[in-house]
Amino acid sequence: MNNITYKSAYKGTLALLVIAGVTTSGQSVFAQLIPDNTLATESSNISSNGLKDTVTGGATRGTNLFHSFTEFNVDIGKSVYFANPVNIENILTRVTGGNVSNIFGKLGVEGNANLFLINPNGIYFGNGASLDIKGSFTATTADSIKLGENGFGLFSTSDPQSSNFLSVQPGSLFVNALANQQAEIKNEGNLKVADGKNITLFGANVTNTGTLTAQGGTVQITGAENLKVRGNIKTDTLLLDTKNLTIGEDDSATIDKATLESLSGNTNLIFQAINNFNINPLSDKILSLASGNGSIKFTTDADNNGVGNFQMDITDNIKTNGRDISILGANLTLGNIDSTLESVGGNINLQYFNNSGKITLIAKQGSIDAGSIYSFGNYGGNITLEAKNNIYRYRGNILARGTMKSGDVTLKASSVDLTGTVIYTTNYTMGDAGNISIYGDYVQLDQGALGSDLFNHSGNTNQNRKAGIITINATKDIYLKNNSFINSYVRSRDDRGTSYPIYGDWQGGIINIQANSLYINDSSINTAVRDQQGKGIAGNININVNENLNISRSIIVSDLEENTQGKGGNIKVNANNFTLENGSQIRTPTAGLGNAGDITINANNVKISGITENKLCFDSCYSSVPAGSSSGLFSNTTPSSEGKAGNILINTDILTISDGAIISASNVNGAAGNINITANKLTANNGGQILTSTSGNAKAGNIIMKVRDNITLDGTNTGLFANTQIGSTGDSGSIDIDPEIFIIRNGAGIGVNSQGNGKGGNITLQAGTLILDNQAFITAETINNEGGEITLNINDLFWLRNNSNITATAGTAGAGGNG
Q1: SS3 for 41?
Q2: Which of 762, 761, 805, 809 is nearest to 781 (CA)?
Q3: Percentage above 70 pLDDT, the chain
Q4: Cβ-contact 452, 467 below 8 angstroms
Q5: Using the 8-state DSSP alphabet, how is residue 193 labeled?
Q6: Strand, helix or coil at 184?
Q7: In the CATH hierarchy, which fold is given to the domain comprising 46-208?
């Protein structure tokens, strides 16, 4: 038997309405009340007093009183009361004839006993029906009711002679007594029992369109085949048990201070309203369903006319315990949704979760305003939110985690606003992480985080794992701000911080961002292979923007940490206008054994400028930039690294590097990356630099510039440099330049300088016009080895003035060299 229970610590109201109609018996003008002779000398007696009939007699067994009728009806405006002898606690009434019982008036008990009405042909409570019962009330179309928990007693309607009356309390109703019958219980009346007592309707098919009131007690509605509920239900606990359940309303449906506590087995639960569905503030904050295979569906705006909202308090919770849940409506305002299923009571151990349910929220006409949503399991359930207008989440979490496979999270709306929101599809144990996909016209991540990471776990033998793909796609603008971060990590640590070796191939997740314009402020985007024993391939970061990409006080990085193995991810940016400022950096470093990724920038206009006055710190300072650091593009290796630095490639119409900004490819032991720039115009001023360097035994990278129109280098500490550091043994890189016009002025310059033991690099410059003015310089210098060559091919004009110079020197420390 499948059970659903609504429960609350306070009295409340559940107003629910169904769409489906149901066929019932028509109202009888002359309702009959006829006892049968199955009880022999203990038959029931009827006494009339005006509009009131009183039932006396019956068979007494202990605290039970049994009545038996051929016909049992209550006419319009009349009442039928059962006498309640002393010490009687239960009055059981059966109907052995072949007709439905029509209750159009009042049914009561002259005392505190519980009343049972049993008619396998059906029971109909008309719109004038009511109860006057101080005990509990049960109406059923079952063939029989058992007496005692062992079932030795029986009160049968189909075979009265087999009945075995006992003096024990009535037990459970026989579900199999409803087999192969379609009898119905329908309530259109106002049925109310005393506070703390219960109402039970148990039939093959049950429809409620009236009012059921059991304040402080339980309303149990059981339909073996179909259950349709609408009207008003006022109770602390609602138990619904059926195969097919539809709950809805023509106008609106309301759960008021009630908790849906259990829905077991394969029952599908459908809440449906043509207009609105409201879950008013829950007294214990949880709407909870027990585990099972059936799905849960809340539907408002069932007629698709754009009117119908789902509303619940954002501090309340819906817990589905592994079931799939979908919520559809014109507008959705939600609290927290949790589809986690624990199979070990009380202990949260990620190795022992069952599969988690799917969560689907759809607002066909309006918006979704939601709290936290959770889906944990062996296979984490997918979470989908779709809205025609807006999805708004304030300081809520969306978590879809699994041991074997984490679930996917998908958000689709005109506007997606994630303020203080964390979305994680991380896998902490042995499987793949889930994907995160966000689609909208506008998307904002404010003080929020998106993460799809892989963590290692003790005893993990999975050879191949993948982090999820993170996709943000906006037809208009995307905003990342106020310490937001987007991560996809490969980590050798488990969720407790213990590091374990990684075996096999682990693939970091790709981050794809596409928008008309993208604004990143005080935020970070990061793919990495982390921790001492990490191994894997960091995911690529792809940013495609039609118009403006503005990055301020932020970081985009794909890296390998110290002693990790694998490969860093590539970072690729496509935009019309690209601005990197205020200490913002795009980096592909490697401190591990593998190679760093490449950085590619394709934009019509590229501006890189400034330094940061304060330290930038994101994701618990894993991604950080020290105070005073330059804005720029950086691909580098560290002393612990054996890998190769990545290349930096820029394709643009106009490139501007200013105010201390740097484009740098540096290395130690591994091979350096090159800097390749293709542009029409390049300007570097006020300390802007393009730099390759080595501080170890490997050669520094080259700077290759194909600038069609003009290059201007202006200001002290501004220029193009390929250097080696003191103590290094690697050679300096070379610089190749071919603009039409090249202007170097005010202390700016070009240098290939070897401060270590390596050879100096070469400078090759081909231009139509070359102007060096006001202490400008071109220099190729070494300290301990051969100097590099400077080759100038000037087609038209060459000016060298105001203390500017061109020099090539070798062996300044006394060693021989060809300067």
Answers
A1: helix
A2: 809
A3: 70
A4: yes
A5: B
A6: strand
A7: Pectate Lyase C-like (2.160.20)
Distance CA 423, CA 426 (A): 9
CA 781 to chain centre: 58
Average pLDDT, rounded, for the chain: 79
Amino acid (one-letter) located at 410: T
Residue with tokens 């779709």: 386
Which tokens is 434 given?
Answer: 């889930």
pLDDT tens digit sequence for 680-725: 999 999 999 999 888 767 777 899 999 999 999 999 999 999 887 7
For 57, half-sphere exposure in the C-beta direction (CA atoms, 13 angstrom radius) is 16
Both tokens assigned to 60: 């007494």
Full DSSP string of 341-366? -BSSTT---GGGB-PPPPEEEEESSS
pLDDT (tens digit per residue) in 253-296 = 555 434 343 344 455 666 666 666 666 565 566 665 555 566 67
Domain span(s) for CATH 2.160.20.10 in the chain: 46-208
pLDDT at residue 158 is higher than 70: no
User: Token pair 């849906």 is at which residue?
Assistant: 260
With a cut of 50, say whether residue 587 has pLDDT above it: yes
- 3-class DSSP state of 789: coil
CB 767 within 8 A of CB 789: no
β-strand partners of 49:
52
Answer whether 59's CB lies under 8 Å from 34's CB: no
| Strand segments (E) across 568-688 | 571-581, 585-587, 599-609, 616-618, 623-625, 632-636, 648-658, 662-667, 675-685
pLDDT value of position 61: 87
Rounded Cα distance between 522 and 531, Å, is 25
